[in-house]
Amino acid sequence: MGINAYGIDLGSSNIRIYNGNDDSYMMEKNMIAVEGKDTLFAYGDSAFDMYEKAPDNITVSYPVVNGVIADIRNMDTLVHYFINDLCKGSIKPADYYIAVPNDVTEVERRAFYDLVLDSNVKARNVYIVEKAVADAVGMDIDVKTSQGVFMIDIGYQTTEISLLSLGGIVASRLIKVGGQKFDDAIKGAVRKEYNLFIGNKTAEKLKVAMRDVQHTNQSAIVYGRDIVMGLPVEKEIDTEIVFESMRETISSIIDSIKQILERTPPELGADIYHNGIYLTGGGSQLVHLADMIADATGLIVNVSEEPVATVIRGLNCIMREKRFASLARSIEETK
Ligand SMILES: Nc1ncnc2c1ncn2[C@@H]1O[C@H](COP(=O)(O)OP(=O)(O)OP(=O)(O)O)[C@@H](O)[C@H]1O
Ligand SMILES: [Mg+2]
């Protein structure tokens, strides 16, 4: 049944909006292209298509940086345009549920709330949902009765590690490590080992392709610019070098996971020990990552089936089901 509500997950790389009216969701790049001072040129995936290719008079940027809104004006514009597209041009009053990381300042938290009010989308009520809580509901965890849920969301610029109990957050850390750091490491290694300069998109493609080539010991072929000759070339890249380049970033994520696990109160440890930890976010799909976390912690790692959409799935359940109503709060009720 359609409900007049939207759920929004603003990521550092992707924006996702659940449309309660027709029970569908959209995902596009959380990106804007502005021509000159303030003329909207493109948004979402079409802005991303221009990224690294646009002429100087067009600025292509991400308004969310490290999980928080860094550019309020452009974020307002994006939310307005995406909602307007979903409503096919006639925005009607609706409720909004917005996922927010826990480990942010009061001002940063408030910005998510104000964003919905300021973006001219006729918000009736605006609710804040802790992102980790939405992730847990999105992974079908009985979050309101479980006494210990350990949730890890690895995104583009952030990894959020949270400990939940009885529907609330006990501890949470947002670290500035995610898929982008893997891409940077790959770029650095390819440059060093092959004298080859590759762009961000190529590095990301190489990372995502690892899953397929790793099993067959194949090498991957990429296009880039030879640093010595200055000319575009095609080169074969050893996947072992690609994987090794990411080890340091993987270790830093694992270290942070262990730190939070070590600080987990023993009363909450039993559920975590029995059920294992939960892993989601686009970056969680990195080849071998889940196994490495399992090895390092000695715990079962439950991997989300739809890692880029768990937050939005959770928001959808929270806005529809009465039993989850207490998980959404207006800004006055949040800490
Ligand atoms: N198969 C894959 N293997 C490795 N990484 C992947 C794969 N698929 C997607 N990713 C990475 O997932 C990241 C995007 O994930 P996600 O959409 O969860 O981030 P986000 O929510 O926008 O960012 P954040 O939560 O940090 O604000 C990108 O870095 C992308 O390269
Ligand atoms: Mg995210």
A few lines on this structure:
With 335 residues, the protein is of the alpha+beta class.
Describe it:
Helix 4 packs across helix 11 (310-320), helix 5 (179-194) crosses helix 7 (239-245) and helix 8 (247-262) packs across helix 10 (289-297). This protein has a five-stranded mixed sheet, with helices on both faces. The longest helix is centred in the middle third of the chain and has 17 residues, at 200-216. It has eleven helices and 18 strands. The chain has helices spanning 45-50, 72-86, 106-118, 131-138, 179-194, 200-216, 239-245, 247-262, 266-275, 289-297, 310-320; strands spanning 5-10, 14-19, 24-29, 32-35, 39-43, 58-61, 64-65, 68-69, 94-100, 123-130, 149-154, 159-165, 168-175, 196-197, 220-226, 232-237, 277-280, 301-303. The protein starts with a strand and ends in a 15-residue tail after the last helix. The model has no long low-confidence stretch (mean pLDDT 95). The chain has two domains: 5-135 and 310-327, ATPase, nucleotide binding domain (Nucleotidyltransferase, domain 5, 2-Layer Sandwich); 140-303, 2-Layer Sandwich (Nucleotidyltransferase, domain 5), CATH 3.30.420.40. By secondary structure, the chain is α+β, with helices and mostly antiparallel strands. Helix 3 links the parallel strand 9 (94-100) and strand 10. It binds adenosine-5'-triphosphate and magnesium ion. Magnesium ion is lined by residues 11, 153, 155, 281.
